[in-house]
Amino acid sequence: MWRWVRQQLGFDPPHQSDTRTIYIANRFPQYGHYTPQKFIDNRIISSKYTMWNFVPKNLFEQFRRVANFYFLIIFLVQLMIDTPTSPVTSGLPLFFVITVTAIKQGYEDWLRHISDNEVNGAPVYVVRSGGLVTTRSKNIRVGDIVRVAKDESFPADLVLLSSDRLDGSCHVTTASLDGETNLKTHVAVPETAVLQTVANLDTLIAVIECQQPEADLYRFMGRMTITQQMEEIVSYFFSFYISLMERNSNSKKTPCSKKPLGPESLLLRGARLKNTKEIFGVAVYTGMETKMALNYKSKSQKRSAVEKSMNTFLIIYLIILISEAIISTILKYTWQAEEKWDEPWYNQKTEHQRNSSKILKFISDFLAFLVLYNFIIPISLYVTVELQKFLGSFFIGWDLDLYHEESDEKAQVNTSDLNEELGQVEYVFTDKTGTLTENEMQFRECSINGTKYQEINGRLVSEGPTPDSSEGNLSYLTSLSHLNNLSHLATSSSFRTSPENGTELIKEHDLFFKAVSLCHTVQISSVQTDSIGDGPWQSNFAPAQLEYYASSPDEKALVEAAARFGIVFIGNSGEIMEVKTLGKLERYKLLHILEFDPDRRRMSVIVQAPSGEKLLFVKGAESSVLPACIGGEIEKTRIHVDEFALKGLRTLCMAYRQFTSKEYEEINRRLFEARTALQQREEKLAGVFQFIEKDLILLGATAVEDKLQDKVRETIEALRMAGIKVWVLTGDKHETAVSVSLSCGHFHRTMNILELLNQKSDSECAEKLGQLARRVREDHVIQHGLVVDGTSLSLALREHEKLFMDVCRNCSAVMCCRMAPLQKAKVIRLIKISPEKPITLAIGDGANDVSMIQEAHVGIGIMGKEGRQAARNSDYAIARFKFLSKLLFVHGHFYYIRIATLVQYFFYKNVCFITPQFLYQFYCLFSQQTLYDSVYLTLYNICFTSLPILIYSLLEQHIDPHVLQNKPALYRDISKNRQLSMKTFLYWTILGFSHAFIFFFGSYFLIGKDTSLLGNGQMFGNWTFGTLVFTVMVITVTAKMALETHFWTWINHLVTWGSILFYFVFSLFYGGILWPFLSSQNMYFVFIQLLSSGSAWFAIILMVVTCLFLDIVKKVFDHHFHPTNIEKAQLTETNSSIKCLDSMCCFSEGETVCASVGRMLERVIGRCSPSHVSRSWSASDPFYTNDRSILTLSTMDSSTC
User: Fold this and answer.
1) Which of 232, 489, 706, 972 is the most exposed place for a label (fewest CB within 10 A)?
2) Is 433 annotated as a binding residue?
3) Contact indicator for 208, 144 with CB cutoff of 8 Å
4) Is 444 known to sit in a ligand binding site?
5) Which of these three, 102, 121, 140, is where a domain ends?
């Protein structure tokens, strides 16, 4: 454990070598001196604490927070020196905050411990000492041979040795790792594939050399050296082994063979075995070195704008606190300069006090004043904010408007720390495929040998005359149906051409669709082939008999299209790919797969046809395939691809190449060398792939449609109206991306589209950017849209960031195409660090979107068809792009307003709390006498004033949600953190000081000259004076919260008036009983005595009304002379559909004068009772037909009005 911790901290390199050597079954060499490498065990640790380090580690983390550390210092000062208040006043709130946070974090970590123990204690089967033994997962060692059965998860990263299939293949699903639900095929090397029993595996002596652990799920390089095998293997297995070895002639007779290992041989921990009875694999990475564990990425600590403002305000209040302490200390010594005040007759100094150091005395007094005023810093603010964020996040998941019935997905909140940031977004960066579109691909058109075809009712029909035909409307299905009877061609009404030309055309079509059927990674879960392909494949012919699974929806759509047109991919049988062409079964031997990678942007397969020919089929983007072609209708196909892209279709080009025997031997040799290399394997493979994928003959291109999601156009338009700039970042061809942008409303037809494409050098890019910048400045009247591709973007970001950003900021919409995942993140990073520091939001659905989701201030994952990796790594997850509007305009708006008020209200009520304490020092010769009792000091923020603001921050709706949805422009009113601006902060601070002055001097004028306010002549003391100030303060700050509340529920009433009632009841019990556990009870009978005075009651009411009157006057003035956009929107909505003066209020006719006055006050204050609420919905609402949000806490009946 300690070694692992040191490795994570970077102090202890985990391994000295770049590779690791693993002896299968831990059979180490017996000769010479050999020291085996040390590897960690298979224990998974996701917990943060242990029983021994929880207390110190948790305390260390909590005291890293400035406020906690500050109160700890104050508490220690109170313990060390004589301070006017008890250490309990600081210690108890601090203890409460630390305890609550520790319990929350400890409980969460305890759940992680339970999960870890469950995983680590799972039973597994391991081959040891020639037998199969049961052990626990945590006991697996590197080199152990592990048996995994069907539907079980792999307990470690295993290299596949054998399966129950003769070819050593198995199917797995990695949905828990990358979210891909398709079945992936993994294969063992032929030499070990035949070892299907424990006894046979016990004879295996082999060594695996592979790279050290890394987090990349799709990268693995290694090789297996087999030094000895038992020769008494059944002859059947041996003959099968020979047939498998024919793929590589270099290893026919070698007694010590080396076999390459790649990602296809590695079974990842967390993946699950499917459609295979059992497999045997050797553990190469265990425990926290497995790829799954290395991908345990803790959420990046994103800080919201509100939190940053909170810290700024905290620093300001610290300055106020220190200033008050310094002023009080200086005034104390100024006052005591006179001898009569320095040492009055009733308070003589001791000899020790007279001889003590003046500097130390000054510091001690300064610290004492610091303790006296320390409650101006609201320690409970952090706890309340955390509770508000945590509890408030449930409203998103409960909102039925964010629930997608088709997929049965509701909105998810992965982090609650950014709720308010949803109300501050200025830039939205969105992926296209699967985010703006459905990611449901449908084959639409294709180009074969320069002729365009489209699918109509399951038939492939040409759009124009073929090169060898004078008539159009060629039906390929009709011609294919006569593939085996060419004598019918001459008489076919739909295919009038000569037999020779017809045969050539059919051959081209046949080769094109065979390339589609063979060049892919599609899997079939169940195959029923008895009647498949026996005739023309019509669109209504038993498509359910074959169920294809693919990691890419494009591949699945293309293979299904080929099946509809008569060439049906049946499946893989070992290394044999079976295809039926109109009932005739053909078997192609799969020799090599050249996997897709984002740099090449293509994939290839090398197959051996039934006739013995060795063919290369290539599929990829036109930008990567067409330059490698030397034959075929290249220019015509390029034109067709551009036409497809303009229609918004996704395009792929198909090409092939035929190898001679000599060429294939050279290719096979180079592939073997590259795949067995342990150093720079990827670079060597890229070079070999480039050598193979050249001199291609172009077959044609395919075009599939990915339709837009519902209400995408309306959502993008709403975002634009809200002042949010939308950027689309995609990997598609720029014509396709622009077409989709136009169709979804991202680009308008009237928009001037600027292009930064195909830039080759820095100078060329700089010149082009300069031209674009001049055009933007000159044509500032019209809107501009910018299209930039990945290559040009790399050049722009390298040397011309400022110029590029100037162009982008002046464009209404930006489209970045041909983007790599890291480029997406870099663009967002560039916007984040720009001088304006805008708040960014990234939304995507695939694994390639994770980098930009994590880079943006707010990351939103779409729970789509490309898996769940984006959703898992995001801050929030929704099922459809259209839900983004309500997430921002309603939830984001409410969250921001609530927490902005919460933060400022906390500082306001603490200014009200401590300022009278500061003013009181002027009347007690700065003797550090406290104005309030210690219990009141402790409970003010914890009990008396905490609940009303917490409930407000959870339930407040200052405007109807329906209005916010219908009027996105209201989102602009809260942008750029306006509610927490310095102007608003100063208003709340000044308001707090003014109320504090009224509390203090109002009470002073009442009893300052005459303290006998009771009928029996009893006098009020200083504790009564402080209690009077405290009582007025509790009532005023609670009533102030009531004035700020617009949406009243029974919960608001309960906590608001209940808090005041609780204060009175508590004070009566606290001061009315002599508590035996209290050493001193200064408040005994004080509160009862105070309430016995009619003058005190009158003063309390007068001061509360005076304080609140200022607020009411300001609200009336602002409402009538400076109404906000929200107030205007409420009035507009009232006149149009809601039929109420206020969108939240309705009033009956025939009301009395008093009721009319009350109505006016409710109008100007902006609040009303839920029982009077009426909302009218119409079917023409732009986003949602009804508001089913959990935010609607009261019954809304339109008949009320």
Assistant:
1) 232
2) yes
3) no
4) no
5) 121
